């Protein structure tokens, strides 16, 4: 089955359970639309590369009553530009539309904690998040939510960016995966759907901002 949803591909969804849990898989592929109708061979090669990225960087250990999902976004902007936005743990509002304010406690380094204010109208007002990994060589960002007035308990995510070619020009593949507890009163599918909706909005906004900057030939400065 192939389905499209908001321009962001959800390649795999899994639900935790005893002994590894049952798997709930949805196959979604936006390759042909983002690359202007790639050949079957090119699409297969790209899918194999994506699977390898997931194997290397997006493996989560699921506990009972947790769910996980992996989302993909192809962006028509070079990887260094996209990464310059993603790596700003201190300024997620540069592309995340639901963030109104962010304050980092102390020095900005691995283990740093940020206090994020969420825009009104959402089922939360604050989120406290810790920087778990920032790798400028592999282009990987990982965070863990450690507090806030929301229901995302034991939430952690990994976001990686990878160079690719789109329509003969430098592009970027963004992969974001997460694992989170399923709240009481919700199913695993409901929980995954809710989180995926936020991530899809973030990734669409990241694409919009990155592609606009690319058109203006601008890059966010690297560095804290």
UniProtKB/TrEMBL annotation:
Keywords: Abscisic acid signaling pathway, Cytoplasm, Disulfide bond, Nucleus, Protein phosphatase inhibitor, Receptor. It is found in: Cytoplasm; Nucleus. Belongs to the PYR/PYL/RCAR abscisic acid intracellular receptor family. InterPro entries: Plant_def-hormone_signal, Polyketide_cyclase/dehydratase, START-like_dom_sf. GO terms for molecular function: abscisic acid binding; protein phosphatase inhibitor activity; signaling receptor activity. It comes from Ananas comosus (Pineapple). The keyword Nucleus applies. The lineage of its organism: Eukaryota, Viridiplantae, Streptophyta, Embryophyta, Tracheophyta. One of its GO terms (biological process) is seed germination. It holds the Pfam family Polyketide_cyc2. One of its GO terms (cellular component) is nucleus. Gene3D superfamilies: 3.30.530.20. This is Abscisic acid receptor PYL8. The keyword Transport does not apply. Its main location: cytoplasm.
